[in-house]
Write a structure and sequence with these properties.
This protein is an all-alpha fold. The chain contains 20 helices and no strands.
């Protein structure tokens, strides 16, 4: 392998038939198989994770109605990071997204490190989501064991991704569509109940009185907002997937621009809107919020029958959506690393349909291994995997920020006409975002519970440092080999 110049020439925009930033012949590049409707739902589905339905109860119990501020703060953080990523992706759409931009802006070691860390993060997510989906399915059909259901869903979604990128997009379109309809229906039904307009419901027309009636808006004090931030931040992970997927559309630049500009209303409606309904319908200290989950408790409080089973079906859809997107994301990152000679060359090759089969199969194999760890050693090996990947998404956001600081100058100098999306108040908001992410990481260190924030930050940092050291050593050895190969031999 050879090293690249510190600041290589910017690659051309993707041609219509490929999505990897190259002019590769047919069969060697990704194909533009995603339609605009696919990308619209991928953008929405990337924001709405199962964590919204499953994990929001803990945040409400900790912060009370103030959890709205926690969601708003994290939502603002995501909007800023996505704006930065959108600026770089609109100027240079590529399947490697932020890993490729880090490579260009910060050095090859940065692209290598963040690419492999992100791949590792999503491989672990595959195991988590497969297990979560298996638990729900085993509850419905106990004749099949949990491990059997985990195997089934992994095989089905692997086959889907292996067929074509269009099949992935079609599955994600319907998965995300179900989530959108479910949340929209929840907001409408809950809103009607709040004002006594829901037929057949005996819920009092309380309006928004629950926001302040039981100990105030911040019953546990202002500090609980930060605790809520730690509990909800990871439910936003995946919003950046759309910038990877945009590379496989006919017009990546337009797709990225549209997705970036719509992220504000997506977060406002699906997160803040639905959580506002929950904390308005229920007392924040209602035991059912933790026992049954916030959305189930809210639906039950207004007399919706079979609320638990309805939410299980919606959560299963979210889990399958995350599993589908996780496999897609891991494989595309592995593909990009392969194309840049930062992974085995086979990862950077595609089959006739433009599908990176080797990258997909390698990702799913490691996903299966992680699932096995979850069943064999859930409290030791798998818990280590969870903790060591817990803060990686925040590291990714930091790298996006630092990459944007330098990429803006590079783009302005070389191709200013490509700055169709711009980060607001550059560079001040970029530095403010860096400070906010750093603060969240620092605050995580105060969470000393087993498997809590401190464990996640420490182990994720150790893993990241290990990958950085490996990347630098690999780059140095590669440079030495290149120098030796260029010396005339007698």
């Amino acid at each position: 392998m050879t090293t690249r110049p510190p600041v290589p020439a910017p690659p051309a925009a993707d041609p219509p038939a490929t999505a990897d930033g190259t002019d590769a012949p047919s069969g060697s590049g990704l194909q533009a198989g995603l339609k605009n409707r696919h990308l619209s739902m991928i953008a929405i589905g990337g924001v709405i994770g199962a964590g919204l339905f499953v994990g929001s109860g803990s945040g409400i119990a900790a912060a009370g109605p103030g959890i709205l501020v926690s969601y708003a703060l994290v939502g603002l953080l995501v909007v800023l990071v996505m704006r930065m990523l959108g600026e770089m992706a609109a100027a240079n759409p590529t399947s490697g997204s932020f890993s490729a931009y880090a490579d260009r802006a910060l050095g090859r070691w940065a692209g290598f490190t963040i690419g492999w860390l992100y791949w590792f993060f999503w491989v672990v997510v595959l195991a988590v989501e497969a297990t979560a989906g298996a638990k729900i399915l085993a509850g419905w059909i106990p004749a099949v064991p949990q491990w059997g259901w985990a195997l089934i869903v992994m095989i089905v979604l692997t086959a889907t991704n292996l067929v074509s990128v269009g099949s992935y997009g079609e599955f994600e379109f319907w998965f995300a569509g179900i989530k959108v309809v479910a949340i929209a229906a929840f907001i409408v039904i809950g809103g009607l109940a709040l004002f006594g307009l829901l037929p057949g419901s005996d819920h009092p027309a309380s309006g928004f009185t629950n926001l302040t009636a039981h100990g105030g808006f911040l019953p546990n004090g202002p500090g609980a907002i930060l605790t809520g931030v730690l509990m909800v931040v990871f439910s936003f992970m995946g919003s950046e997937i759309v910038t990877l997927a945009a590379g496989e559309t006919a017009d990546p630049r337009a797709a990225v621009t549209k997705a970036t500009n719509s992220v504000i209303w997506r977060i406002a409606v699906f997160y803040l809107g639905s959580i506002l309904v929950v904390v308005s319908l229920l007392r924040w200290d209602d035991p059912a919020i933790l026992k049954d989950g916030s959305y189930v408790a809210a639906l039950s409080s207004i007399g919706i029958p079979h609320a638990g089973q309805i939410m299980n079906a919606i959560v299963l859809t979210s889990v399958l959506s995350c599993l589908n997107s996780g496999l897609y994301t891991a494989s595309r990152m592995a593909f990009s690393l392969g194309r840049r000679s930062d992974a085995p060359a086979a990862f950077g090759r595609t089959a006739r349909g433009g599908v990176p089969q080797s990258a997909i199969l390698a990702s799913v194999v490691f996903g299966f291994v992680a699932v096995g760890f979850n069943y064999l050693w859930p409290d030791t090996v798998f818990q280590f995997l969870l903790n060591s990947s817990g803060a990686i998404a925040l590291f990714v956001w930091l790298v996006i920020c630092f990459s944007q600081l330098r990429m803006r100058r590079i783009i302005q100098r070389e191709t200013p006409e490509k700055l169709v999306v711009k980060m607001w108040l550059y560079p001040y908001l970029t530095w403010a975002t860096i400070a906010l992410i750093t603060f969240v990481l620092g605050y995580m260190l105060t969470d000393t519970a087993e498997g809590g924030g401190r464990d996640q930050v420490v182990l994720s940092t150790l893993v990241a440092v290990g990958v950085v050291v490996f990347a630098l050593l690999r780059q140095r050895l590669s440079s030495r080999k290149k120098t030796y190969d260029n010396v005339p031999q007698s």
